C-alpha cells in the first residue's frame, strides 16, 4: 500500500475529488465554494497522509475535513443571511435540458433552507450512502438523532419541493 | 397530499441535484500547493511519476499483451452520465490491489452507426500476471489495463473492433495533470496513417484510447501520446499536443446495451440496461430469434439528447436470441436511420 503522501494524495484525488465536490455542493449550495473547500481540505490533510497509509482511513479523514470546513463556511456565511445559491450554470439547449437544470436548482435551493444538520445528514445518508452508525460516529451524535434529522429533513424537503411546483 | 419521500426518492433526488457538477481538474493546483507546503516543512518533492518500466525497443513487447475475455458488467467506473445510476461507495475505489484476472476493466471499441463509426464501451476481464504496468495497484495500473484491453483486438461483441494495428502495445504510462501513453509496435510504423482508413477513423482510434485511458483513470484528463518515446504524429494525426476527449454526441455511439453482455445466459424475465442519447429519450427494442420477432417494446431514457440510462424488462421462452435496441427514428425512415446495438444472448 502506498505510503508516499504525494502518491496517496493523487489516489485520493482520483477516487474522491469529484464526489467530495458534489457532497460540498449539496451542503453549501454553490460549486465555487465547494471546489475551494475541497481543495483546501486536500492541502490540509496532505502532511498527515504519510501516517494514514490505509486509503480507507485517509478517505474518511478527508471527508471529515471537508464536512468540518463546510460547517465553518456556513457559520461565517450565516451573518449574511438569505444566501441565494448560485446553481451550476445551465447548459443552453433543449427545453428538456432547461427543465432538468431547473429541477436541480430547486433541489439545491430547497436543501439550503433546511437546518445545517438535517442537510448534512441527508447528504451523508443519501449521497454518500453511509449508514446511520457511521454518520452518528462522524457527526458525534446518537443514531436516534441521525434518524430524526434524516426524517425531518426528508419531510421538510418534500414540503419545499411541493411549494415550488 | 402526495406520499412522503422514501430512501430511493431521496437517493435519486440528491444524486441528480449534483449530477451536472463537473469540477475542473484541480490536481495540478493541488500538487503545486502541497509542494509549496511540503517545501516549507522540509518534506521531499516529487516530480511526475512514470510507470518506471521501459521495454527495450522491439523486444519483449509480448509482455504487455493482455488476455482479454468478454464480460459485461453494469457497474463500472466512469462513464457518460451513468454514475447517477450506481451510487458511489465510501472509500477509495481506484486503489484496490488488483486480483488476477482483473474484472470490470472499462475499454472502448469502434462499431458502426448510420453516422459512421462511433465508440462503444465494454467491461472486460484482463489477465495481468507478469505485466509490470497492468498489475500495479494505482492509477497507472488502471490506465494500463484499460488502454491495453482497448489495443488488444478482442472486444467481446463481434460487432466491435479496435482501431489499432495488431501488435500495438504500451511501453509506459504516466499520470499527472495529463495521462501520458507511450506506444510501440515492432512491425508497423505507428506515426503513419494506416492503409485503408480515413483520417476520421484514425481520429476515432485516438479517441478510443483517450476514452479508455480516462475511464481507467476515472478522470477526464487530456492524453499525451508518444510513439517510442517521441510525440510527433500517431496514425497520421498530429499529437504534438495532448488530445482531449471529443464531444459525446460526435464520438460515442448513441445507443449502448450494457447488460446483458454478448454471450450472456439469463433467466426470464431479465432486465436490460444501457445508455442512449435518443430523440424524445425513447429507445425501441426487439428480441429476435433468427428473423422472427419474439418480443418488442420501447423504453424511456432518463434524459433526452445526452447519454442517459435506460432499462426495460424482457420475458421470453428458453432459446438463443439477438437482443436489439435502437433509437426511435423521428424522420420516419427519411434520415440516415436509427443507431442500434445488438447482443447475442441465451435465455435459460
Query: How many individual β-strands of chain A?
Result: 0
Helix and strand pattern of chain A: HHHHHHH
Instruction: Please provide the ordered H/E string of secondary-structure elements of chain B.
Output: HHEEEHEEHEEEHEEEEEEEE
Instruction: Please give the most extensive interface between any two protein chains, plus how many residues each contributes.
Output: A-B, 63 and 54 residues
Unreliable parts of chain B: 40-97
What is the terminal-to-terminal distance of chain B?
Answer: 45 Å
Distance from first to last alpha carbon of chain A: 51 Å
* Lateral arrangement of strands in the main beta sheet of chain B: 10-16-15-12-13
Helix content of chain A: over 70%
Helix vs. strand class of chain B? alpha+beta
3D structure, described in words:
The complex is a heterodimer of chains A (165) and B (348). Chain A is mainly α and 165 residues long. Chain A has 7 helices and no strands. In chain A, helix 5 crosses helix 7. Mean pLDDT of chain A is 80; it is low at 80-93. Chain B is an alpha+beta fold and 348 residues long. Chain B has 5 helices and 16 strands. In chain B, strands 10-16-15-12-13 form a 5-stranded mixed sheet, with no helix packed on it. The radius of gyration of chain B is 21 Å and the shape is globular. In chain B, 43% of the residues are buried. At the A-B interface, helix 1, helix 2, helix 3, helix 4 and helix 5 of A face helix 1 and helix 2 of B.
Write the layout of secondary structure elements.
The complex is a heterodimer of chains A (about 160) and B (about 350).
Chain A: H1 5-28, H2 31-45, H3 55-78, H4 95-112, H5 116-127, H6 132-139, H7 143-163
Chain B: H1 7-17, H2 27-40, E1 68-70, E2 102-111, E3 118-126, H3 139-151, E4 169-175, E5 179-184, H4 199-217, E6 223-227, E7 233-234, E8 237-238, H5 248-251, E9 255-259, E10 265-266, E11 270-276, E12 282-289, E13 292-300, E14 308-314, E15 319-327, E16 340-347
Amino acid at each position: 500500500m502506498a505510503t508516499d503522501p504525494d502518491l496517496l494524495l493523487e489516489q485520493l484525488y482520483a477516487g474522491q475529488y469529484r464526489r467530495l465536490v458534489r457532497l460540498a455542493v449539496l451542503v453549501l449550495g454553490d460549486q465555487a465554494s465547494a471546489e475551494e473547500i475541497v481543495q483546501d481540505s486536500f492541502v490540509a490533510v496532505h502532511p498527515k497522509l504519510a501516517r494514514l497509509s490505509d486509503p480507507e482511513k485517509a478517505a474518511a479523514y478527508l471527508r471529515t475535513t471537508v464536512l468540518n470546513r463546510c460547517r465553518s463556511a456556513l457559520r461565517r456565511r450565516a451573518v449574511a443571511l438569505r444566501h441565494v445559491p448560485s446553481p451550476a450554470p445551465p447548459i443552453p439547449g433543449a427545453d428538456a435540458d432547461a427543465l432538468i437544470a431547473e429541477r436541480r436548482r430547486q433541489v439545491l435551493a430547497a436543501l439550503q433552507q433546511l437546518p445545517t444538520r438535517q442537510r448534512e445528514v441527508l447528504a451523508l445518508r443519501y449521497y454518500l450512502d453511509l449508514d446511520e452508525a457511521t454518520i452518528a460516529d462522524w457527526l458525534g451524535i446518537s443514531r436516534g438523532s441521525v434518524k430524526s434529522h434524516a426524517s425531518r429533513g426528508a419531510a421538510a424537503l418534500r414540503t419545499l419541493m411541493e411549494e415550488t411546483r | 397530499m402526495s406520499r412522503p419521500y422514501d430512501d430511493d426518492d431521496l437517493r435519486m433526488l440528491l444524486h441528480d441535484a449534483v449530477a451536472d457538477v463537473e469540477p475542473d481538474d484541480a490536481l495540478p493546483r493541488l500538487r503545486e500547493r502541497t509542494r509549496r507546503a511540503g517545501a516549507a516543512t522540509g518534506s521531499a518533492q516529487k516530480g511526475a511519476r512514470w510507470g518506471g518500466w521501459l521495454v527495450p525497443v522491439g523486444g519483449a513487447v509480448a509482455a504487455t499483451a493482455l488476455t482479454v475475455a468478454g464480460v459485461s458488467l453494469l457497474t463500472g467506473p466512469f462513464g457518460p452520465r451513468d454514475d447517477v445510476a450506481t451510487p458511489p461507495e465510501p472509500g477509495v475505489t481506484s486503489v484496490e490491489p488488483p486480483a488476477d484476472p482483473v474484472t470490470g476493466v472499462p475499454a472502448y471499441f469502434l462499431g458502426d452507426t448510420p453516422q459512421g463509426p462511433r465508440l462503444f464501451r465494454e467491461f472486460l476481464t484482463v489477465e495481468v500476471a507478469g505485466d509490470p504496468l497492468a498489475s500495479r495497484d494505482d492509477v497507472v495500473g488502471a490506465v494500463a489495463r484499460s488502454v491495453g484491453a482497448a489495443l488488444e483486438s478482442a472486444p467481446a461483441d463481434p460487432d466491435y473492433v479496435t482501431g489499432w494495428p495488431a501488435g500495438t502495445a504500451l511501453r509506459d504510462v504516466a499520470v499527472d495533470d495529463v495521462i501520458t501513453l507511450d506506444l510501440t509496435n515492432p512491425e508497423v510504423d505507428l506515426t503513419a496513417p494506416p492503409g485503408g482508413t480515413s483520417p476520421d477513423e484514425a481520429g476515432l482510434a485516438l479517441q478510443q484510447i483517450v476514452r479508455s485511458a480516462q475511464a481507467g483513470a476515472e478522470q477526464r484528463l487530456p492524453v499525451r501520446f508518444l510513439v517510442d518515446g517521441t510525440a510527433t504524429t500517431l496514425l497520421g494525426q498530429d499529437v504534438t499536443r495532448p488530445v482531449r476527449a471529443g464531444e459525446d454526441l460526435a464520438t460515442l455511439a448513441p445507443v449502448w446495451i450494457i447488460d446483458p453482455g454478448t454471450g450472456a445466459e439469463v433467466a426470464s424475465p431479465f432486465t436490460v440496461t444501457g445508455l442512449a442519447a435518443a430523440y424524445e429519450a425513447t429507445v425501441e427494442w426487439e428480441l429476435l430469434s433468427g428473423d422472427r420477432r419474439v418480443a418488442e417494446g420501447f423504453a424511456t431514457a432518463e434524459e433526452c439528447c445526452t447519454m442517459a440510462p435506460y432499462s426495460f424488462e424482457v420475458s421470453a421462452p428458453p432459446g438463443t436470441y439477438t437482443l436489439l435496441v435502437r433509437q426511435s427514428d423521428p424522420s420516419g425512415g427519411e434520415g440516415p436511420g436509427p443507431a442500434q446495438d445488438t447482443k447475442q444472448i441465451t435465455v435459460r
